[in-house]
Amino acid sequence: MKDYRRSRFFCIAALAVALVVVAIPSARGATATEVLVDKSFHITVLRTASGTLVFPDATGTTGDSATPVGTYKVTEKQANPSWHWEGKVYAPYLQDKANGLGVRWIGISLPSYGLHGTDEPFSIGKDVSHGCVRHQNADVTKAFPMIPTGTPVSIIETPVPQQTEGMVTDFLELYDLLAVMGGSH
Questions:
Q1: Are strands 88-90 and 127-129 parallel, antiparallel or unpaired?
Q2: What residues are paired with 155 via a beta bridge?
Q3: 91 CB contacts (<8 Å, ≥6 apart)?
Q4: Helix, strand or coil for residue 79?
Q5: Cα–Cα nearest to 121, from 95, 140, 96, 105
């Protein structure tokens, strides 16, 4: 059992290093040709001509709050958006930390759904939203200029074996730890 845990840790560490070292350089000046959200792995993938950039995300719960599987297009983008929720208007996140959209909003062709930042950074890696795709504010800020209006957005759900699901959870916890420590990710 000890060897299994050690090898699992090294697999997760290798994945973290790969995401940090390989994906980040491709972000400079790149334009996304496709956005892929995999609900099962809680990741958002930006495909560009020069490579791939991957960010962890949070998606919707179940029923009416599930993130809808399908193919959409980016229809609007807002930096520092106000948030209208349950009859209340929240000022942009930098003025009101209760703004659930965080620092960026990327709306898709399914009205009221989109990709955005969050005021709950430790929700990343979970099924907790009301259907939108949440990201760390730092991650959505990096992705925002790379995603033009009209970019295709595919939301998929991949069956995940239970053993793999634990590894994904461990990776997301490591990613959160890097974020808390102020590390580059």
A1: unpaired
A2: 37, 70
A3: 82, 99
A4: strand
A5: 140
Bridge partners for 173 per DSSP: none
Tell me, what amino acid is at 158? Answer: T
- Dig out the tokens for 15 from the structure: 């994945």
What's the Rg (C-alpha) of the chain? 16
Burial class (CB in 10 A: 0-12, 13-18, 19+), 1: exposed
8-40 residue pLDDT tens: 544 444 454 444 434 444 456 789 999 999 998
Closest by alpha carbon to 169, among 103, 108, 125?
125
Query: What is the SS3 assignment for 108?
Result: strand
Contact call for residues 30 and 145 (beta carbons, < 8 A): no
Is 112 in a helix, a strand, or coil?
Answer: coil
Question: Tell me, what DSSP letter sits at residue 144?
Answer: G
Torsion over CA: 23, 17, 182, 102 (sign)? positive
Q: What is the pLDDT of residues 84-118, one digit of tens each?
A: 988 999 999 989 899 999 999 999 999 999 999 99
Catalytic machinery residues: 116, 132
On whether the CB atoms of residues 56 and 45 are closer than 8 A, the answer is: no
